[in-house]
Amino acid sequence: MESIAPTEKKWMEYETVFKALSDRNRLKIIFNLCAKEMCARELLQLLNISQPTLSHHMKYLNESGLVVSRKEGRSVYYSICTDIFHEMQDLVVDMLKWCE
């Protein structure tokens, strides 16, 4: 079977995504954002974490490509970037094919 391995650049992107998903608070953020777009204030109420901690996690998730943000007035709203999740799904499917 020929190799289906991604390029080195893709490996680096996947590593960033998996690192982003390896934190419990970031996973909670992702799961909440899967339901709907939310502002930082809403996330703070759900997660019971400080504003600086949320900012740190949101920066990490944004840089990994898992979430996108938009500013409306003084509020920042976050939503899931589904493209990266579809790409990760394709990666897992490819890995499963390789295992067969």
Provide the descriptors you would attach to this structure in a database record.
14% strand; single chain; 100 residues; three-stranded antiparallel beta sheet; elongated
Low-pLDDT regions: none
Distance between the termini: 10 Å
Helix content: 55-70%
From the helix content, strand content and strand pairing, which structural class follows? alpha+beta
Instruction: Work out the helix count.
Output: 5
Largest sheet: 3 strands, antiparallel
The SSE string, one letter per element, is HHEHHEEH
Describe the global form.
elongated
Structure description:
This protein is an alpha+beta fold and 100 residues long. Helices cover 66% and strands 14% of the residues. The protein is built from five helices and three strands, in the order H-H-E-H-H-E-E-H. The chain has helices at 8-21, 24-35, 40-47, 51-64, 82-99; strands at residues 38-39, 67-72, 75-80. The protein has a three-stranded antiparallel sheet. Helix 1 (8-21) packs antiparallel against helix 4 (51-64). The chain is elongated. The N and C termini lie close together (10 Å). The model has no long low-confidence stretch (mean pLDDT 90).
Quick rundown:
With 100 residues, the protein is an alpha+beta fold. Helices cover 66% and strands 14% of the residues.
Topology of helices and strands:
Elements: H1 8-21, H2 24-35, E1 38-39, H3 40-47, H4 51-64, E2 67-72, E3 75-80, H5 82-99
Antiparallel strand pairs: 1-3, 2-3
Helix pairs in contact: 1-4
